[in-house]
Design brief:
Layout lengths: L7 E5 L2 H12 L7 E6 L5 H11 L14 E5 L5 E6 L6 H5 L3 H6 L2 E6 L5 H4 L3 E8 L6 E8 H5 L2 H9 L4 E3 L9 H4 L8 E2 L6
Parallel strand pairs: 2-5, 2-6, 4-5
Antiparallel strand pairs: 1-7, 1-9, 3-4, 6-7
Helix pairs in contact: 1-2
């Protein structure tokens, strides 16, 4: 379960800016970590993962795993990136059959599209990211919520990663306890908007 008192919002205005956010958050990943991606069809979940994979040194092209369910990528960090899509799976036992927790134990991290469906099979520690269509053409708003002690302990790092990514604008970060870097944010690069405040 996420702690709704800790949420970070950032708005992007292009696929490249969404990839930039993925790259910033990808820098935080360690073996055993899970990111659960949500959002409507076409919102940019795979686009986000492409930026994340690039930040981890993935050399292969990251593509949607909708029909393969899980794709595995070698990273330059010495662990594996699992990219899963559970949109087509209607039963919890089908998600359990993917054996994602077992693969995480084997020196891997995971990004799961339509991840809210996988929560019962994953456990309490994950970073929830919902990508929403924003008002402007091509704009997206990402709502980032850490859940569980593993990710809540890294809330300051998540705050910093969403504060100044190249190509995105902080649009409303709402951490319960703001990271010092968000108290006096530097000018955001072109394409990124973020604001910091209490939820």
């Amino acid at each position: 379960m996420t702690d709704d008192t800790v949420a970070f919002r950032v708005r992007t205005n292009s696929p490249e800016a969404t990839q930039a956010i993925g790259g910033q958050l990808g820098q935080l990943l360690r073996p055993g970590d899970v990111i659960l991606l949500g959002g409507d069809l076409g919102a940019g979940k795979t686009t986000f993962t492409q930026g994340l994979g690039r930040a981890l040194g993935v050399q292969d092209v990251v593509t949607s795993p909708t029909f393969t369910l899980v794709r595995s990528y070698r990273t330059s960090r010495g662990f594996t990136l699992l990219h899963a899509d559970v949109y087509r799976l209607e039963q919890l036992h089908e998600i359990i059959d993917l054996a994602l927790p077992e693969q995480l134990d084997d020196n891997a991290c995971a990004v799961i599209e339509w991840g809210d469906r996988a929560t019962p099979a994953i456990g309490p520690d994950y970073l929830s990211i919902t990508i929403e269509f924003a008002v402007g053409e091509g704009e997206r708003e990402l709502v980032v919520r850490p859940a569980g002690p593993r990710w809540l302990a890294r809330s300051p790092e998540v705050a910093a990663a969403t504060a100044h990514p190249a190509g995105a604008h902080p649009a409303g970060a709402h951490p319960a306890t703001a990271h010092p870097a968000t108290a006096h944010p530097a000018p955001a690069p072109a394409g990124v908007q973020q604001e910091t405040g209490a939820c």
